[in-house]
Amino acid sequence: MKKRVFTAAQPSGNVHIGNYLGAFRQWAAVQDDYECIFGIVDMHAITVYQDPKDLSYRTREFAAILLALGIDPAKSAIMVQSAVPEHAELAWLLTCVTPIGWLQRMTQFKTKAARYEEVLDGLLQYPVLMAADILLYNASIVPVGDDQTQHLELTRDVADRFNRLYGETFVLPATKLPTVGARIMGLDDPTKKMSKSEDVGGHAVTLLDPPEVARKKIMRAQTDSHPEVDFQLSGPGVKNLLQIYQAFEGLSDDAMKAEFAGMRYGDLKKRVAECVVARLQPIQARFKEVMADEAGLHRVLDEGNARARTIAMETVRVAKERMGLFV
Ligand code: TRP
Prior knowledge:
This protein is mainly alpha-helical and 327 residues long.
């Protein structure tokens, strides 16, 4: 039997090329080797206030983006967290084996909490809900970005504690970090990772940017005072552009050097812009098709939710039974 993979992301329409090259492209790539469940975690999204209309639209939009990127619903389940109530149910069971101290120590909690005067309980519980997402499906592999490794450690700690208290129940999941093309930096500031929340104009090329917008952003990307590409001396802005090209085109380091060494920055940008526009074109075309077929999209999510729920219900039943709850 194939090993099971679970991974997830919050619903967002601003998926950018950094998310694609660092994460979602890997999602599509693991589909043939593993049994995959991909979650759209809207209940994580509401740990900070979301406009309700916006959130429900973005859930569908995000599902359409995943389909456009090549996730195949015949192979993989695409599910929405809030449509499978066992996520919330298992999260409660897990809060009852999780010391508060473990949650207060999470770096993501500390960073996010520092931004608010009043800190919501949901923000503290975020990692427990994430543990529930993963443990529900007994996933043995979880592909995530390096900012999620601490949450994965917590997931294993919580699973281990449950197993010790109530008997072997959960699989301890392994973290799978992306191998190549992982860290695309901001176009406006190549010292910072390309980020979804950074919505200043020239920061990121999103997957849905029209060609002229994508081109403009790349042509304005920050470089440095060298006149031309030098694989030793060029700064982080140029390295980032090269990395974007390399990740999209799948070229070796030698092939990159042969193609770009000595090229003027203006020409480099044009080449990168054309590459990005060309690679986004089929994704955008497919996205439009998927969004136009509302019933079809709904069907995909209904099926994904149903597949996920069958597994989730059984896991919760076993966990409740082990804990002596009424089943
Ligand atoms: N916290 C993850 C992120 O921000 C999203 C997430 C929620 C997740 N549940 C998950 C990722 C389960 C992997 C597995 O990227």
